[in-house]
């Protein structure tokens, strides 16, 4: 395995969880084949009339009956060995990389239960159990793309971005169209470029997998590139999720909700932002119901096994190491397609505004499976 300590630990956890799944499956197959193999000669011997042969059949059947218990013991020992190694790795991640206390011990009783559910329960509640559950839950899903895939993706078209912006503005209610056009046209705003309905599913997949921006090669976009030595050069900030709105109407609806509420706020829009800002930044979260959005209004790709904050941070670290030059890089990360609004724990949209010399402007806006820690939640504001 290649990469930094945090990345290598995450890769090792995932590899061991794959080994557990393989071992469970193979031991089950062995048990089934062994039982059948032992019963066949026993049944053949019973058909004979000689007492000695029939006695041999009884001995063979007894051996066959003992096999399941012996293989169960092997399975428990295998699960215990793998769980012990994963527990040690998670302890290092918890203490050294996430500033968490040392982990409580494993529950050996749960390891006697076959299958994923018992294995997950063996880990102490909280960080470790949630981490194992999210990585294990995505283990068989998703896929990896390559650096070459990202480099070969066609450049974005500025005309498509401009057209999407026009269609979004047209979908906003008439009283809000001027301010929305100003926000979305500001050079500091990349909401349409990165999260607009013109962004393709493939562009989202490559954004989350390799940080390649969907607006690549357009004016103002990050100059993402793949060097001849295999190193990905990127300053584009991408977390473990990449999402977009699927239509101009879906993009426009939450903005209308926010502006309608802000228009009723004492002092108006500027006062609304100022009263909710922290150091010149106002970050809002509108739950999906409040924003007027539902399943199908958004689409995204997310990292596999990133269902907790810590697991997502470690996955991002693996991705960073995968972007290093050939011979020093980690394997490509895997991503899965998903709908943030359908699958998120607390889905909605995030909107971020910044105060500048000319007033407040939007910097980004996107669908999310959950609010950010610094977001001001607007619950049914209208």
Automatic annotation (TrEMBL):
- List the coiled-coil residues: 6-33
Protein origin, superkingdom: Bacteria
**Is Coiled coil set as a keyword in this record?**
yes
Keywords, A to Z, come to:
Coiled coil
For this entry, the protein name equals: Uncharacterized protein
Question: What species is given as this protein's source?
Answer: Jiangella alba
* Lineage, opening ranks: Bacteria, Bacillati, Actinomycetota, Actinomycetes, Jiangellales
